[in-house]
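Appendix B, record 7
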Amino acid sequence: MDSRDHAAAVGHRVRELRLARGITLSALAAAAGVGKGSLSELESGTRNPTLATLYALAGPLKVPLGTLLLDEVGTEVSSDGVTGRLLDLRRGPQGVRETYCLDLAAGSERLSPAHGPGVVEQLLVTEGVLLAGPVGAERLCPEGSMIHWVSDVPHSYRAEGGAVSAILVVTTPATVAPGQH
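Structure tokens (predicted):
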């Protein structure tokens, strides 16, 4: 799927989820902290979705990020030096498990909003050094180390020194995303 088709499909998915939940465009824009015009353009497929925007929308829509990525393994989104590529997505009675390859350019940082209750992130650093975890309780993760945290609070990832590559597994319990597993 080319980038225009992908943007249109993602926008359609966002609109479909918003309408299914009875949320107005204005209300979703406010809840996600994105501009109403930007959200309208995203829904119409005229704006490419960024990682930051999709993460901001996933919370208020109560879906895992992978749902907004159309559950399409290989889908890649980027913003501000951080790129996430969906490697695997599993849905089952217990919930959803998404696996991403996460690449951060040297010096880049990503602040992620809180996810739903019980959402857990596990992070394995495969190259470089990453400072990651809940805001105010971040931990330094050198290459080869693994950390995890409950991500129901704002959390961050920051490349320390050079570029960083990591594998990120996000587990969302079925109770957080009803009807999405």
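Remarks on this record: The first helix runs from residue 3 to 20. The chain is about 30% helix and 35% strand.
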